[in-house]
Amino acid sequence: MTFKKDIKQSWRTLIEVLSYKKFRIIVGITALILFGVLFYLMVSTVANNSLKIAIMMSGVNFIYLSTLLITIMSILFGIYFSLVVFKFSFINAKKGVFGFFGGIIGAFGVGCPTCGAFLFGLIGAPLALMYFPFKGLEIQILGILLLIVSIFFITKSMNGNCRINKKGGKK
User: pTM here?
Assistant: First the structure.
């Protein structure tokens, strides 16, 4: 199968899994929780957890772009997590933790570049984001790319196996 056919088949598998209400709810809840955590980490690295101070320190464009990337990452992680739940529930798979690395790596890029990301501070490198050319946004983009690749591989591994109606699932 060619790469183009793999992408089309993976897309169809993703659409089919997300056609079930249960998995759309999983996407929404997971995305909201992750967005809340990542947004809190972004703002908690500045004084008094103030978004206004974060904007003053990092600039409006940086905060908007960072919030957009956090939103994209949260939605992609929600999709990935729903696919993992589907795969473990209905296909009896025992592999598939690659996408969690995308979420973790992306979380390292969240934060004020002058104060350092919360997670970098935990490992003893609080000013690490200052040394990146885009002040940590590239780490978030790397996390998003890893999540996209993870979603592709998990849907590719499920191709032809996502008929859950015969196992009791409902749309």
Answer: 0.76
